[in-house]
Amino acid sequence: MLAAQQRPRLIDERGLRTDGRRPDELRPIRIELGVLKNADGSAIFEMGNTKVIAAVYGPKEMHPRHMALPDRTVLRVRYHMTPFSTDERKNPAPSRREIELSKVIREALESAILTELFPRATIDVFMEVLQADAGTRLVSLMAASMALADAGIPMRDLIAGVAVGKADEVLVLDLNEAEDMWGGADMPIAMMPSLNKVVLFQLNGTMTPEELRQALELAKKGIAEIYQLEKKAIKEKFVEVS
Ligand code: UDP
Questions:
Q1: Which residues in 86-196 belong to E strands, given as ranges?
Q2: Alpha carbon of 125 to ligand 1 centroid (Å)
Q3: Domains in the chain, please, with CATH?
Q4: 187, 215 in Cβ contact below 8 A?
Q5: Which atom of ligand 1 is nearest the CA belonging to 137?
Q6: Residue of the CA atom closest to atom 15 of ligand 1
Q7: What is the pLDDT of residues 99-152, one digit of tens each?
Q8: Pocket mutation for ligand 1, best pick of 80, 104, 129, 180 (most atoms within 8 Å of C-beta)
Q9: DSSP state at residue 242
């Protein structure tokens, strides 16, 4: 680890971040549904320089049959970083981190999908990180949520999420990689916004109870903005098709 004096400054004298954003500002977001012809549902979700493509297959019959559940669909979820998504080539073999994130994302999706509607079936969800600049677990989860909507799979709500962290002791919304690496905390949180339910919550680093309270408020503001963009992307696809 580099000594503190070698760390880059994350907030400048004007109070702006390394990419020119204000502390409470999201990165530019682009969402596109139906980007793959062979999947039942698909989406690209970009948040600044973080770009993820997600594809959904199903619901379909579960093979092998003994893995099927009598009362609900089995979700099979893979989060994966492409070798060219990071500045140093990433080994394409699944890492421990990718296995953990696949599980965390599966649990979040399981709380949103009405899995009881499709007993004995399975739904496959694949997420490929095309470019990583922090926040890939959340952008992947949101890409998956959009791809599921594109596939017409019934859900309680869409999922929107953002990370809040600390850059030079200032609370910042939607961390970039420099802030993720050099900041004092990284708190990714994802919700089903209209139900006010949290589906993913993690914290790396430290926050005081007051910082945590403010961080949650900041995250909710970001999530509300993202949710509007998600709904807009779905409407655009629907209008295009009809
Ligand atoms: N990262 C990387 N190589 C890796 C894992 C992560 O370059 O093998 C970078 C990437 O930009 C990622 C960031 O570190 O987005 C933060 O990773 P973290 O584990 O905090 O997850 P994320 O913020 O992407 O959900």
A1: 121-131, 160-167, 170-173, 185-192
A2: 20
A3: 21-241 (3.30.230.70)
A4: yes
A5: 25
A6: 134
A7: 999 999 999 999 999 999 999 999 999 999 999 999 999 999 999 999 999 999
A8: 180
A9: -
